[in-house]
């Protein structure tokens, strides 16, 4: 079990998974924020994603001084656990070395929170991942997308594009979330929580 000061993968090797849905139809939706944050990290290290046999788009790099496999599952969100598990197995990364970036309805737009373990809070991507891994003990970087307006079904809301107002601020928040990921990887959970909560 990890402690609040732990560094993912003990600072040796990590698997960083962004959750989302593949294809242009979903590219700019709220549910795809995990993919968008990984794209920012890929830009920072000057790399690009390529298809991998485990069922993910993969970029191997050094992130914050740590050997990292950045992955975007090629399956839909509710089946993302299988490809992430396959990639983790391929690279020899245990759940303690997995960091997942995902959208979070219960946080205001742009808010970033980090945690280790815990429930899935109704998130189908996390449910799939916890089921596939057989544990909830992995790191999560939660990017707030806010609650849907009025009586809109959350399942519909997460598959819609960001609003015009949100789009104006999106790059700033993606950049900040990427900073939070790098802080987590380099300095551990407590340091990242202190800096970004």
TrEMBL record:
GO terms for cellular component: cytoplasm. TRNA binds at residues 26, 76, 78, 124. It holds the Pfam family Pept_tRNA_hydro. The record marks 21 as: Discriminates between blocked and unblocked aminoacyl-tRNA. It catalyses: an N-acyl-L-alpha-aminoacyl-tRNA + H2O = an N-acyl-L-amino acid + a tRNA + H(+). InterPro entries: Pept_tRNA_hydro, Pept_tRNA_hydro_CS, Pept_tRNA_hydro_sf. One of its GO terms (biological process) is rescue of stalled ribosome. It is found in: Cytoplasm. The active site is at residue 31. Catalyzes the release of premature peptidyl moieties from peptidyl-tRNA molecules trapped in stalled 50S ribosomal subunits, and thus maintains levels of free tRNAs and 50S ribosomes. Hydrolyzes ribosome-free peptidyl-tRNAs (with 1 or more amino acids incorporated), which drop off the ribosome during protein synthesis, or as a result of ribosome stalling. Monomer. Belongs to the PTH family. This is Peptidyl-tRNA hydrolase. The lineage of its organism: Bacteria, Bacillati, Actinomycetota, Actinomycetes, Pseudonocardiales.
């Amino acid at each position: 079990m990890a402690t609040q000061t732990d560094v993912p993968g003990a600072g040796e090797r990590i698997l960083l998974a962004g959750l989302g849905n593949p294809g242009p139809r979903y590219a700019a939706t709220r549910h795809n924020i995990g993919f968008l944050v990984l794209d920012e990290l890929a830009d920072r290290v000057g790399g690009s994603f390529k298809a991998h046999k485990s069922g993910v788009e993969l970029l191997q790099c050094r992130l914050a001084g740590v050997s990292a496999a950045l992955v975007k599952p090629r399956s839909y969100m509710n089946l993302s656990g299988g490809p992430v598990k396959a990639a983790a197995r391929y690279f020899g990364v245990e759940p303690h070395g997995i960091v997942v970036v995902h959208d979070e309805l219960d946080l205001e737009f742009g808010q970033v929170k980090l945690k280790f373990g815990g429930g899935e809070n109704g998130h189908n991507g996390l449910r799939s991942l916890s089921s596939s891994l057989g544990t909830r003990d992995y790191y999560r970087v939660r990017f707030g997308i806010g609650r849907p307006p009025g009586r809109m079904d959350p399942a519909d809301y997460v598959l819609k594009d960001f609003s015009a107002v949100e789009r104006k601020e999106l790059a700033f928040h993606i950049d900040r979330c990427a900073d939070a990921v790098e802080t987590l990887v380099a300095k551990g959970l407590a340091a990242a929580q202190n800096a970004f909560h």
